[in-house]
């Protein structure tokens, strides 16, 4: 019979050999999930012996990850800005890059009086929900074309205790907004921005598991940016902010699209790799 530590060492080796970059972290996450423990509890119990049934379940989950399935889809959960988020294959997995977008949104809204926020292309709802969690006066609309994604976003709003201030609505960012969507203080949008031709070259964990509808930004990757700038600025109050998550190498093109639509460029904020990630405009 093996201890949890024995199984953890085997799991690290398996994931490392499979090319998983964060093999130690992901081994802990999967093995903790299999044990029904959080990572601190799992770490505490490393010297204990595990049952054969646990070992078999751990092997099954590890094989799924080794074949490319993301940890978040295996466990059904992920963390975003310290908040728990339910995820399914109907939604993109929240990225650490996107935390910069949420942090920027929260920063701009501090001190605002009853701001109304539109999180367009919301997916899991992570940006809008983090905003509502940190800005008590905010009222947030989560908008997405995917009904399955909206179901998850509603669950995440409830999970994080902000359902009373968050509404999820179906909306297509490529079409004009419904008249009811108006008078927003801030529009934040993390749209699909991968050029269609680049999707086949993405890592298997993205290409084969995450929804292509949430990745594919059209031939040049700018299709959604173009539509939001042209069709959605009418939902904003004068002086409102627009915050986009930006793909690699797209910041200058996005700036030009925003300015052509009558928005004033404010700044571009870089992520931890020095890539322009948050592109900020003012109406």
Give the structural class: alpha/beta
Low-confidence stretches: none
Count the beta strands. Answer: 9
* Total domain modules: 2
Q: Give the ordered list of helices and strands.
A: HHHHHEEHEHEHEEHHEHEE
Task: Please estimate the helix content.
Answer: 25-40%
The top-level CATH class of the largest domain is Alpha Beta
Largest sheet: 7 strands, mixed
Produce the secondary structure layout.
Blueprint: H1 4-17, H2 23-35, H3 39-44, H4 52-66, H5 71-75, E1 77-80, E2 83-86, H6 96-109, E3 116-120, H7 126-134, E4 139-144, H8 147-159, E5 166-170, E6 184-189, H9 204-207, H10 223-231, E7 236-245, H11 251-260, E8 264-270, E9 276-282
Helix pairs in contact: 1-2, 1-4, 2-4, 6-7, 10-11
How would you describe this structure to a colleague?
With 283 residues, the protein is of the alpha/beta class. It has 2 domains: 4-67; 77-282, Vaccinia Virus protein VP39 (Rossmann fold, 3-Layer(aba) Sandwich). It is built from 11 helices and 9 strands. The chain has helices at 4-17, 23-35, 39-44, 52-66, 71-75, 96-109, 126-134, 147-159, 204-207, 223-231, 251-260, and strands spanning 77-80, 83-86, 116-120, 139-144, 166-170, 184-189, 236-245, 264-270, 276-282. The strands form 2 sheets. A 7-stranded mixed β-sheet has the order 5-4-3-6-7-9-8, with helices on both faces. Helix 8 links the parallel strand 4 (139-144) and strand 5. The longest helix has 15 residues, at 52-66. The mean pLDDT is 97.
